[in-house]
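Possible regression after last week's pipeline update?

I re-ran a chain I had predicted before the update to compare outputs. Posting the input and the new output here so someone can diff against the archived version. Not blocking, just want to make sure nothing changed silently.
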Amino acid sequence: MSEFSEIHVTCASKEEAARIGRTAVEKWLAACAQVSGPIMSVYRWKEEVREDEEWLLTLKTRACLFDEVSALVAAEHSYEVPQITAVPLDDLSPSYEEWLAAQIR
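New output (post-update):
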């Protein structure tokens, strides 16, 4: 299992994504937060197919912190069921891996 992962969270606004990302970095739960977008999401919610503009928040963190980061996101997020998914970071340059390790508790 990889020591590090990227957590992906879709947010209703750029400001929400930036606020959650900043909080995760300030609490040493993520080495960095990147906000991308806007993106178009198509999904089913309460028996209705919806299309919404969203922003993608990417957090670089330790895989073992997934539950703690998820709890932070859930507490700070405007959605009833926010997307919180993780992708392992298997191949990292040695210098980037060293930097990540120093930035996350």
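Follow-up from reviewer: compared with the archived run. The CA atoms of residues 7 and 74 lie 13 Å apart. Marking as no regression found.
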